[in-house]
Design goal:
alpha/beta, Rossmann fold, 8-stranded mixed β-sheet, 6-stranded parallel β-sheet, about 15% strand, globular
């Protein structure tokens, strides 16, 4: 077998912003097999349920949009994007199964329409269960019944799956202890980053001391600590600025909380909130910052951290998930062991003072994480045989003869 169906509730361009989307895009781009991509569309004129062409750099993949999403309406909706996407997967299940190829899902609930099928199923957890246990901004996760439903869903999908990919040692330990009888299904394969794209600026421009965060504006990110720590940091660096790059595709009350925390500390003029940005617009922020900070309550191994390190940016992170396995004190950044704003400010200040040395360590660390190696290992775990991608005209003719969408 040399083909695979990659499924994710994104448009494989820039929506929804986040590490899982970037992972899915990179996997589709670098996989050494035929990849058929199933996702959604933001274009109201794009036919739903008809195969199209997705361009990822110099690579083209067959793309089946199964759901149209209006961004503004989705942000105001209390119906999660993934709930809508699962319904669309059920609707187009037969078309997907006709490809007669293993399925690779990035969310547990995306496996629900395929539980009673014989098609090989593989699941990348992205630390999802551990994340849900610790919080998420969407109101549904506050309800006990919904959490119980999610845990049952995840357990059913893991039992059904032929293999489960985890991207950090912490994720492996978490899932192996949660499902000890299924331990053999879990496979730790380190995440990867495009180091040829994410790299230091060739000509750095002068700028005030800059602290950068990239990610969802979600309660799990612990942004109250980041803002309080930055307020302390400004006592040493009055000209410093904090840039928060990110947002949410769903209803998100946390954004208002973040603005309130900023106002409470009186640092409105020093904080920039960019909102959701296309991926290509984020690179300059990495290249013009001095310190990258993650104060998360839980993480797997976020793409943003590897991207920051690849750009030579020292990182200050909390001691959760896979973060301490990547960030090493006095080499490429610092690990915050206690959730204390003063200690966070001290580590940020230390990173500023030693950034020349730490930048070298950051770039060296990122070189150890190759996206090509990750994708190759995942495909090998699935038993897929590398092949040259067929031309899109050949694919179009094949799909035309096999599928009726």
């Amino acid at each position: 077998m040399s083909r695979l169906v990659l499924i994710y509730s994104g448009d494989f361009r820039g929506y929804p912003m986040g590490g899982v989307l970037e992972y899915a895009k990179n996997f589709a781009r670098y996989a050494p097999v035929e990849v058929y991509v199933v996702g959604l569309s933001l274009n109201p004129d794009q036919p739903i349920g008809r195969w199209d062409t997705l361009r990822l750099g110099s690579v083209e993949r067959p793309f089946l949009p199964i759901l149209y999403v209006d961004e503004a309406r989705q942000r105001g909706s209390r119906i999660p994007l993934n709930y809508r996407f699962v319904r669309a997967l059920r609707r187009f299940q037969s078309e997907i199964l006709l490809l007669d190829a293993p399925l690779y899902i990035q969310r547990a609930e995306h496996g629900l329409p395929f539980l009673n099928t014989a098609t090989p199923l593989y699941f990348n957890t992205h630390g999802q269960s551990a994340f849900v246990e610790r919080w998420t901004s969407h109101p549904l996760f506050r309800w006990r019944w919904f959490r119980q439903w999610f845990y049952r869903t995840e357990a059913r999908v893991i039992q059904r799956a032929q293999g489960v990919i985890v991207i950090s040692p912490a994720d492996y330990d978490f899932y192996a202890s949660k499902f000890p009888s299924l331990r053999e299904k879990f496979h730790y394969i380190p995440l990867g980053v495009e180091t040829e794209i994410y790299r230091p600026s060739a000509v750095p421009e002068p700028h005030p001391p800059t602290v950068l965060f990239v990610g969802r504006l979600d309660a799990s990110k612990g942004l109250d600590l980041l803002i309080a720590g930055f307020a302390c940091f400004r006592q040493q660096y009055p000209e410093a600025r904090l840039i928060l790059v990110g947002g949410s595709q769903d209803y998100n009350p946390v954004e208002n909380q973040v603005r309130a925390w900023i106002a409470d500390h009186g640092i409105e003029e020093a904080v920039v909130m960019t909102g959701l940005l296309p991926r290509e617009a984020i690179l300059p922020y990495y290249q013009s910052a001095d310190v990258f900070v993650l104060t998360s309550l839980w993480e797997g191994l976020p793409n943003a951290l590897l991207e920051a390190l690849a750009c030579g940016l020292p990182a200050v992170v909390t001691a959760v998930g896979g973060l301490p396995s990547v960030v090493q004190d006095d080499y490429n950044g610092y690990v915050l062991r206690e959730r204390d704003p003063d200690q966070l400010a001290e580590l940020m200040e230390r990173a500023m003072r030693h950034q020349d040395r730490l930048r070298e360590g950051a770039r060296s660390t990122a070189q150890q994480f190759s996206i090509e190696a990750h994708v190759q290992k995942v495909c090998e775990r699935m038993g897929l045989v590398p092949c040259e991608s067929p031309s899109m005209s050949d694919v179009a003719e094949q799909l035309k003869s096999e599928l009726v969408c």
